[in-house]
Design a protein that fits this description.
With 215 residues, the chain is of the alpha/beta class. The protein has helices at 43-61, 77-96, 106-114, 121-132, 141-157, 172-182, 188-203; strands at residues 2-8, 13-21, 27-36, 65-69, 101-104. Strands 3-2-1-4-5 form a five-stranded mixed β-sheet, sandwiched between helices.
C-alpha cells in the first residue's frame, strides 16, 4: 500500500487528506481535515497556523509522498497569492522531511477522479466518495479536493520514482509499489499492478490547467 497525503492549499481553508492506494488502484481513506484561519488574523500568523497544521498531519500519518495542487495565474491576484503561499508551506514541509512531492493541476485531478477535466466540485465530491467507499461525500469541498489530489497522485505515480525521489531514497512502501508495478516480482500483486498501469496509460491524455478544484 502506498500512502499519499494531499494538500488543497488555501489561506482560509487548507484541505489535507491522506489515502492508502494499492497497486490495483483500490483506495481507502486514512484521514482528512481542513486547517482553517480567520481572514482578520495577521498574514504571518495565518501562514504559521497552516504550516503547523500541515506539518502535524505529515508527522502523524507518515505518508510516502505528498501531492499539492499546482498553482497557476488567475484574475484574482489576492486569491492566487494566498493559494501559492499555502502551497509553498506544503512543499517546504515535505522537503524538510525528505518526502517526494507531486504537483497536479485541477484539470488533471478532475480528469483522474471523474474522467472529465471540467467537472464541478459536486462531481469531484461524489466520485471521491465512491472511489474511497464512503457513505457520503467529504465536506467541505476543500477536504474532497485534498483527497482527490492524493488519489490522483497515487494513480498517476506508475513508479514512485515519478514522485520526484531517487531510487535510493524510496521508502519500503514505495519500493514495493515500484517492484509490483514494474513487474520485477512475479506475483499476483505484480500482475495486478501491471494491468492497472496499462489501463491507466491507455486512457490517460495530456491535461491542461483549468479552474481550481473547488471551482
Amino acid at each position: 500500500m502506498l500512502r499519499v497525503l494531499g494538500v488543497d492549499p488555501g489561506l482560509t481553508r487548507c484541505g489535507v487528506g491522506v489515502v492508502e492506494v494499492a497497486p490495483n488502484r483500490r483506495a481507502r481513506l486514512v484521514h482528512v481535515t481542513v486547517v482553517r484561519t480567520p481572514p482578520d488574523m495577521p498574514l504571518e500568523l495565518r501562514l504559521l497556523r497552516i504550516a503547523d497544521g500541515i506539518a502535524a498531519e505529515i508527522d502523524e500519518h507518515q505518508p510516502d509522498a505528498v501531492a499539492v495542487e499546482r498553482v497557476f495565474a488567475q484574475a484574482n491576484v489576492r486569491t492566487v497569492m494566498g493559494t501559492a503561499q499555502a502551497a509553498g508551506l506544503a512543499l517546504h514541509a515535505a522537503a524538510a522531511r525528505g518526502l517526494p512531492v507531486g504537483l497536479h493541476t485541477p484539470s488533471e485531478v478532475k480528469a483522474a477522479v471523474t474522467g472529465y477535466g471540467n467537472a464541478d466540485k459536486r462531481q469531484v465530491q461524489t466520485m471521491i466518495a465512491r472511489v474511497l467507499g464512503l457513505d457520503e461525500a467529504p465536506k467541505p469541498a476543500d477536504a474532497a479536493d485534498a483527497l482527490a489530489l492524493a488519489v490522483c497522485h497515487a494513480w498517476r505515480l506508475g513508479s514512485p520514482d515519478a514522485a520526484g525521489s531517487r531510487a535510493t531514497n524510496l521508502t519500503p512502501a514505495q519500493r514495493a509499489w515500484r517492484d509490483a508495478q514494474g513487474g520485477t516480482v512475479d506475483s499476483p500483486l505484480a500482475r495486478a499492478a501491471a494491468a492497472a498501469t496499462r489501463a491507466q496509460r491507455g486512457r490517460s491524455a495530456s491535461s491542461v490547467a483549468g479552474p481550481r478544484l473547488g471551482a
